[in-house]
Amino acid sequence: MEYIYSVIPSLVAIIIAIWTKQVIPSLLIGLWVGSLLLTQSLLSSVGQTVDYIVGVLTDTGNINVLLFLYMFSGLVALIQISGGIQAFGSRMKKYITSSKRMFMVLWGLLPITFIDCGFRVVATGAIVKSLSQKYNVSKERLAYMLNNSASPVIILIPVATTFVGYVLGVVGKGMQASGVEGSALALFIQSLPYQFFSFTAIAIAIFSIMPRFNFNVMKELINVNSTPNKLARHTEFAEEFHHHEKGESMKDQTGNAVKDSMEHNHDMDEKPILKPRLINLIVPLIVLLPLSFFLMWNSEEPSHSMLIALFITTIITTLLYRVQGIKLDKLVERFIKGGNQLIVTIAILAVAWPISDVSQDLGLGQLIETTLAGNLSPIFVPVLLFIVTSAVSYFIGSSWGSWALMMPIAFTLAVSTGSALPIALAAVLSGGTFGDVTSPVSGMTAMAAGIAEADHMKYVKAMSPYNLTAGAIAALLFLVVPFIL
């Protein structure tokens, strides 16, 4: 037990994050505690904390990831004001004649809204919300469909999304912590078949379009004449998490309370500046996707290749919108404002990466090797990682925060026990995705409820049976599949 102190930084960060629901301060405190244990000096620990943060921010690979995230969010902001989404929505409305077709369109919009989780919910919601009201689709059902067609799907796409840029960053740090060599992108792609929660959550959401496959709470909400007081007792759950205010008003669901904690937030009320034209949506996509694939093919630095593809796409998109009349200063303003909407994510990485470093310096790898390598079967590692990550992400309401915390631990544990790295990686990503779409304090849960104008806690109560079922099936798969492999 010589290296038992190595788990304290992550443990402190997780406990404080669960208690405060604030990821960044919790990570910073965890990093400082680790530095204090390492230096055994109060004054030196502060300097060591700063050194760790500066160290990760001066690494070329890390800067590629952070710039990619900032620029990607800026590009999404430009697309939002271009009118491209509105043009596509106007065309699609001509073919929607029933609630089932509306749901088909909601899922069919993925090829043009997949680039970011928040963008997916906001853009799709803007297109289908009026149609859902026309065909008497409950607000909670719409919120459930929006949320479960975002994170669970986007985490499966290995190119041209904010998720893949972030994931490559945390995977790279996990590989570095455990001494694994190779490509973070290749390992991420190998993990895709084992993303069991995403597959089960998507399948259950699609099946729920048919009334016979719905749980009782959602069946009650399908009837738009249901009495609001029927589910009032369920707001007790919100009080346990001290976030009851999120479900009280539309303002709270889309305003400061949510924006302060959301990792991939985009303005829900953003109006297009240009006349809606389909080309304004299509051009950025047809440039970004093929260019990303081309530059990343056989690249030894996929994050750098994605950044180049994104830079070229942003220039072309800016020129396209400038020709149509948007002033350059407005484009720059919207780009910077959009980039700043992912500053929370960038800050999470800036303090989560150093926690991995200080934990390794305190002997995390040696601790896992001496205590677990001979006592824990590699077969049980994936299900253990999935359950723990799910719990962490559920209580802190942050998939990206839980990934940053758990990835170095997961890689070190998998290497020490001989567990397969792709399925271990998939278990952590699946656990974070579970919390992202299920937790009452998740930013994406609040965003989906807000854009659908649904009561936050009614929505949480209605969708929980679906996601808990998907989570249980995923846990079973993470337990059974390693026996087969």
How would you sum up this structure, described in words?
The protein is an all-alpha fold. The protein contains 27 helices and no strands. 55% of the residues are buried.
Quick summary:
With 485 residues, the protein is an all-alpha fold. It has helices at 8-20, 23-39, 42-57, 60-80, 84-93, 99-108, 110-113, 117-134, 139-148, 151-154, 162-178, 184-191, 196-207, 216-222, 236-240, 250-254, 256-259, 279-296, 302-323, 328-340, 343-361, 364-371, 381-396, 399-417, 421-438, 443-451, 456-484. It has 27 helices and no strands.
Overall mean pLDDT score?
79
Structural class, please? mainly alpha
Output the radius of gyration.
Answer: 22 Å
Number of helices: 27
* Low-pLDDT sequence parts: 221-262
Write the layout of secondary structure elements.
Layout: H1 8-20, H2 23-39, H3 42-57, H4 60-80, H5 84-93, H6 99-108, H7 110-113, H8 117-134, H9 139-148, H10 151-154, H11 162-178, H12 184-191, H13 196-207, H14 216-222, H15 236-240, H16 250-254, H17 256-259, H18 279-296, H19 302-323, H20 328-340, H21 343-361, H22 364-371, H23 381-396, H24 399-417, H25 421-438, H26 443-451, H27 456-484
